[in-house]
From TrEMBL:
Lineage of the species this protein comes from: Bacteria, Pseudomonadati, Pseudomonadota, Gammaproteobacteria, Enterobacterales
A GO CC annotation given for this chain: plasma membrane
Principal subcellular localisation of the protein: membrane
Database matches in InterPro entries: ABC3_permease_C, MacB_PCD, Membrane_comp_ABC_pdt, YbbP
Domain MacB-like periplasmic core: 19-192
Compartment(s) where it occurs, according to its Swiss-Prot or TrEMBL record: Cell membrane
Entry's transmembrane regions: 245-263, 297-324, 336-358, 379-399, 405-431, 452-475
Name of protein: Permease
Species assigned in the record: Proteus mirabilis
UniProt domain ABC3 transporter permease C-terminal: residue ranges: 249-366
Domain of life according to the entry: Bacteria
Amino acid sequence: MIWRWFWREWRSPALLIVWLSLALAVACVLALGRIGDRIDKSIYAQSRDLIAGDLVLRASYPVDENWLAEAKRMGLTLSRQMQFTTMSYAPEGDTPQLALVKAADNLYPLYGELETQPTGLKAEKGTALVDARLLALLGIKVGDNIDVGDATFTISGVLVQEPDSGFNPFQIAPRILINLADVEATGAVQPGSRLTYRYMFAGNEALIDEYQQRFDPLLKPDQRWNSLKQDNGALSQSMERAKNFLLLSALLTLLLAISAVAVSMTHYCRSRHTLIAVLKTLGADNHALRKWIIGQWGVIIVAAIVVGSLVGWGFELVLLQILAPVLPKSLPDASFMPWLWSVGSLLLIALLTGLRPYHQLMSTQPSRVLRSGTTAPSWPLRYYLPIVALIVVGALTLFAGTGVLLWSILLGIVVIAFLLGVIGWLGLWLLKQFKFKQLSARLAVTRLLRQPFQTMTQLAAFSLSFMLLTLLVLLQGDLLEKWQQQLPEDSPNYFLINMSKPQVQQINTLLATYHVAPTDAYPVVLARLTAINDHNAKVWADARDAGNNTVRRELNLTWHSELPKDNVIVEGSWPPVGNGVSIDQGVAQKLEIKLGDELTFVGDTREFKSVVTSIRHVDWKICDQISSLFSQKKG
């Protein structure tokens, strides 16, 4: 009976629109959700590879062994690493070379790939993997010996790239990877040695979070976490932008589907009031009618899920082609959650848009057969709409979070919908003032004026639907345009360092022969910020931001007569006068430094003081940026 009812009603255009709208909602949410889920997994995998673990604890001194024992007790995998700089020698050579030595245990890396030549090598005890540049400088090759500090190692291969090496254009020393068990033999660990300890943890996300939260209050000033939740550069930002576009598109698609289903469902149920009245007159009770109607609604939902799922996978392939410029070449497979989200969205739309019209349909009185104008009782809109609004807001908060952009757009949509309703009411009022001669025009106007609220609602829904479609198209173009404009076409992607002043002109001449325009070359020196207004810098920083490591590391300083490109003065004036210095806005905000404050730097065994004369906004997505900038050389 339900199937016969369904196939007979299938010919109704209103019911067909309802089914197509629900199927479209499933398809769009599934396609966008699957891509968003795959982007999430890709960002997670990328972040995990870049730090070679799920969580990294970095310190200047060895960490309490009880902390590490607790990690193992919780079931986390632990890998240890130590970094230091020391001199390296070729056994037959006389010229030493400064090298950055990384000592790791046999578990390193927990994630990512250690690129070596030949492939698949690790630093075994008594062996070393050496940067090709260092091999060339020392005049040695794979299979030879190399002296690192007081120890001699056999070179087992070339160190090409470590997953957690990152990118630092100011890192001059070539790299050596040795086994952690060989550190003591090098003699590099002495009182006063500058060492960096890294402890990498891998395991279940919940256990990682629990471990970090447990020991976070116990961190010392030299200790800091590095986790997957931290930003990992421009690629992650591009992918995050693509994810936000997909999320916003899914929300707008849901709103579009809700408006379409609401209008078509209301129209369909209104057109079936007389049929229900006739069936009740012929003896059909509410139980039988409810079974037919709920069964029909269930068939529609199942059909929408099946067809929407198939179409959704097709949409996913199309979207992957559209978003190809901002996505990696390969993405992980999606989980089952996007499909559950799409089905949940379908059920939510079905309840919000179908519950009231079907309730009104079931409330149809048999007397409607004789009096067609009889209106079936239903839930008052003044109560129903606020409840629906609360459900929608709660669902959107769960689905979209509390992003300002998303909620601003949704608020704008609500305001526009209200304005469209007002415009519709004014339009009806104007129609009422005109006298139409043609009978068809008079009947049409009379029909519109008979139910003004329904007319205004439909006008607002259709207008809003066209606006949402236009907004989706504009957002797609804006996403691709923003990605393309993220870095100018002439942005530098090669960096030359450790040049002497006479070599700069020679390099510029060489680049000119290949029609390559170089950026400005400037000197870079390392110095520590030791005092702020004659107060100890570490004490000053801990009082304002205990997690800030600006005063615990060396800063890049330089001097230049002109303001570098992509730097904008936000306070003060350029250039610095006398002993003035221009500092980065981020550093100024974290340390609460303002114009006129005196900073004390120590570099190359010399101390010098400078007064802050300007604060600059620095685009750190451009690699060649400096935190502190002078207009002339100091000392």
